[in-house]
Design brief:
The protein is an alpha+beta fold. It has three helices and seven strands, in the order βββααββββα. It has one domain: Thiol Ester Dehydrase, Chain A (Roll). It has a seven-stranded antiparallel sheet with strand order 1-2-3-5-6-7-4. 27% of the residues are buried. This is Tol-pal system-associated acyl-CoA thioesterase.
Length: 154
């Protein structure tokens, strides 16, 4: 599990790093990343973090043991704007893993400078939208990769 997968980013210790580029579609008329589009970058970071652990979320959505991860809460600090064509890195780590939820820390950087920081609570749910314990194999992979990491902007 983990390791180097160019399409899924790279783990460096407990932090997953995913390179992303700012495209025209991500920006407003001034060429600055539109505030809501930062959430897309964060989503890609969380998705690729899970994928790099060897977990395909599409596999969780099949069979009698259907589970999905749903964002329950997002706290974002917008610190510095990003612009068209910027090369960014989405950094993601697990701050807390509970039975049916995760708190993930994230930040997006450019040349090592933090542009935004976020804390995201993700709930594991069943097909009816009710809380469901995280699959034991997924939880084990998260805990094995986990560890403390710097918070946004630190």
């Amino acid at each position: 599990m983990g390791g180097r997968h160019p399409e899924t980013g790279v783990f460096e210790g407990s932090v997953h790093r995913l390179p992303v580029r700012v495209y025209y579609e991500d920006t407003d008329t001034a060429g600055i990343v539109y505030y809501a589009n930062w959430l897309r970058f964060l989503e890609r970071g969380r998705t690729e973090y899970i994928r790099a652990l060897g977990v395909r979320q599409s596999d969780l959505l099949t069979g009698d043991d259907w589970r999905a991860f749903a964002v329950r809460r997002v706290e974002v600090d917008y610190l510095v704007p990003a612009r068209l064509d910027d090369a960014l890195v989405v950094e993601t780590w697990v701050e807390e893993a509970r039975g049916a939820s995760l708190v993930m820390g994230q930040q997006v950087t450019r040349d090592g400078r933090t542009l935004i920081g976020a804390r995201v609570r993700v709930a594991c749910i069943d097909a009816a939208g009710k809380p469901r314990r995280i699959d034991p194999e997924v939880r084990a992979a998260l805990v094995a990769q986990g560890g403390s990491a710097p918070g946004p902007g630190e």
